[in-house]
Write a structure and sequence with these properties.
By secondary structure, the protein is mainly α. Helix content is about 55%, strand content about 0%. The protein is built from two helices and no strands.
Length: about 110
Amino acid sequence: MSDEMRIIPMDETTIDIEQEEEVCSPTDCAGAFVHSFSHSLVQGPIDGVAEVVNTIAGKRLIPKVELVKTPEKAEIGTNRWQAQKYGSGAGIIACLFVIGGILSRGRRS
């Protein structure tokens, strides 16, 4: 082997980083999923429209409207974090279906 490539053996000097798993009961995980889902479905489009209008106008025409509070950030890799990510993704997909349905109705008229 060359000096540039060396195999470093794992021994007792190697530090194992263990992450304590946050216990997330089924109701807690379902709550995290639903909260993230509703935030992505309802609050996301509101924030997006407000941001676009305010940016184009160059001033704050639309004030901050918060119908659904932002979910608390969960520790990465925990069950609660996964529930939030799945809920957020499902909310975005649902939002796209709603927008697609609205746009397709407009074309039929």
